[in-house]
């Protein structure tokens, strides 16, 4: 790298410019093919059967290690670990996805820490139990799930958080399930080779580096599982959550800095380019500049009901496109038993961010329990429509819950067919079409419940909450003046 590296704390950090717009090769990863004007026809995922994965022989060397970038322009608010040291019910979860267009499939790693403030209720062993009732009344522990190629799954669980670490202000975390003999588990980011020297089973991940080895614990008898996964890849972030080159935004607004309207949600990297390899069971996948994505949640528990769509692989337009949309039913602060239903749509296209949130417009949806997602939204200047379908059953994934801990609660697929339409609104004449693109590699999800038929709702926040959340408050700037009061994770 051109910039010189500095030793800061446990990790190497340096200031880098944002990733450049993709070259022709990169563009083929994000957007390719002829223009399409309809949701792609439903079909089986036959393309996945033409899998170029190779059988494992000798282990591959690590890709060049890329240290965490300090003050990078794509850093979003809420990148850090939000646990504040209290004993209240708390979880934090992270989602890292890499899509490989050549095989029309993806890999997603989901890491969860539950009840880090109640260390006394769990064993300090690193056994991988992880069934719903194994962690006692506090459901204390660390979980790692992987949803991978051909809808296979892996789950490893540790009934302790003692070997978990997370940076207070940076997207950097890791956990050691099994350390190397005679070695102490890491408590911060390490250079790639040093991590291998100290960790037998575990992971570490930052915005620019992700590596680890996990072993399935055998607690998912009704799912297609693999025995193990080993991986290492570096990432060049392209988009955070906001216009390229400008201050990045909190996905849920400035009030996400405080424990209200939980759970909170932050897209940390709407799009990036990842290069490295994955060993999934007995097959190896190598990739270069593969589209990647990162988000996180934190708070008391997941919403009681939710939906989600995400893709950064589209056909029908030049340039890189990244889409995330989600909505849920969440509890209201200070009003036991009360809840609200909210949703949002966020689109990055050619450096510009198009945001549709209920405090600056309306978001309307019609979501089936599984198989159909329809969302429309508008603000003062733009409007958007999303239509997505799935003809595959998907994979059941575990989520944090209040009464059962980490338990199967949602359904996901990487093979969603989606059409995205975006317009600039006009006061005279027809609205201007900005995007009309399709994807057959969209991630789709529904979760929670109850789902009694389609979920239909129109979300528009009312006064005074609408006005309050819409205030142009720069929480990070305020707390820089009072660093001792700055919340964890911001």
UniProtKB/TrEMBL annotation:
UniProt region (Disordered), positions on chain: 22-44, 59-81, 119-143
UniProt-listed SUPFAM superfamilies: AttH-like (SSF159245)
Domain of life: Eukaryota
Pfam families: Tocopherol_cycl
Listed name of the protein: Tocopherol cyclase
Species in which this protein is naturally found: Riccia sorocarpa
Lineage summary: Eukaryota, Viridiplantae, Streptophyta, Embryophyta, Marchantiophyta
């Amino acid at each position: 790298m051109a910039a010189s590296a500095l030793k800061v704390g446990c990790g190497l950090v340096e200031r880098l410019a944002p990733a450049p717009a993709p070259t022709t090769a990169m563009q083929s990863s994000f957007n390719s093919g002829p223009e399409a004007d309809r949701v792609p026809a439903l079909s089986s995922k036959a393309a996945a059967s033409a899998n170029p994965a190779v059988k494992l022989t000798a282990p591959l060397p690590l890709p060049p290690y890329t240290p965490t970038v300090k003050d990078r322009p794509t850093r979003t608010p809420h990148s850090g670990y939000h646990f504040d040291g209290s004993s209240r019910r708390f979880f934090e979860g992270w989602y890292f996805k890499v899509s490989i267009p050549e095989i029309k499939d993806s890999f997603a790693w989901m890491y969860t820490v539950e009840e880090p403030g109640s260390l006394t209720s769990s064993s300090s062993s690193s056994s991988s139990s992880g069934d719903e009732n194994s962690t006692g009344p506090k459901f204390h522990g660390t979980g790692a799930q992987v949803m991978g190629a051909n809808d296979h799954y892996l789950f490893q669980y540790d009934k302790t958080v003692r070997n978990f670490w997370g940076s207070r202000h940076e997207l950097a975390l890791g956990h050691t399930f099994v350390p190397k003999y005679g070695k102490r588990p890491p408590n911060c980011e390490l250079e790639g080779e040093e991590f291998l020297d100290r960790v037998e089973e575990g992971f570490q991940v930052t915005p620019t580096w992700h590596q680890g080895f996990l072993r399935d614990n055998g607690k998912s008898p009704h799912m297609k599982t693999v025995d193990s996964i080993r991986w290492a890849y570096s990432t060049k972030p392209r988009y955070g959550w906001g216009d390229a080159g400008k201050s990045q935004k909190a996905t849920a607004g400035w009030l996400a800095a405080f424990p209200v309207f939980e759970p909170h949600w932050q897209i940390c990297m709407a799009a990036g380019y990842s290069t490295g390899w994955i060993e999934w069971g007995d097959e190896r996948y190598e990739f270069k500049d593969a589209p990647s994505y990162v988000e996180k949640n934190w708070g008391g528990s997941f919403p009681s009901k939710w939906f989600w769509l995400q893709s950064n692989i589209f056909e029908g337009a030049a340039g890189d496109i990244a889409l995330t949309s989600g909505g849920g039913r969440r509890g209201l602060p200070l009003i036991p038993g009360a809840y609200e239903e909210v949703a949002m749509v966020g689109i990055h296209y050619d450096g510009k961010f198009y945001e549709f949130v209920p405090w600056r417009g309306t978001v309307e949806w019609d979501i089936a329990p599984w198989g159909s997602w329809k969302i429309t939204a508008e603000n003062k200047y733009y409007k958007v429509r999303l239509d997505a379908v799935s003809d595959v059953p998907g994979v059941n994934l575990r989520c944090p819950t209040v009464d059962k801990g980490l338990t199967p609660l949602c359904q996901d697929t990487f093979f969603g067919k989606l059409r995205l339409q975006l317009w600039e609104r006009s006061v005279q004449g027809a609205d201007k079409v900005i995007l009309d693109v399709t994807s057959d590699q969209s991630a789709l999800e529904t979760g929670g419940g109850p789902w009694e038929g389609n979920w239909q709702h129109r979300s528009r926040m009312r006064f005074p909450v609408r006005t309050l959340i819409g205030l142009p408050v720069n929480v990070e700037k305020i707390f820089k003046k009072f660093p001792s009061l700055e919340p964890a994770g911001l």
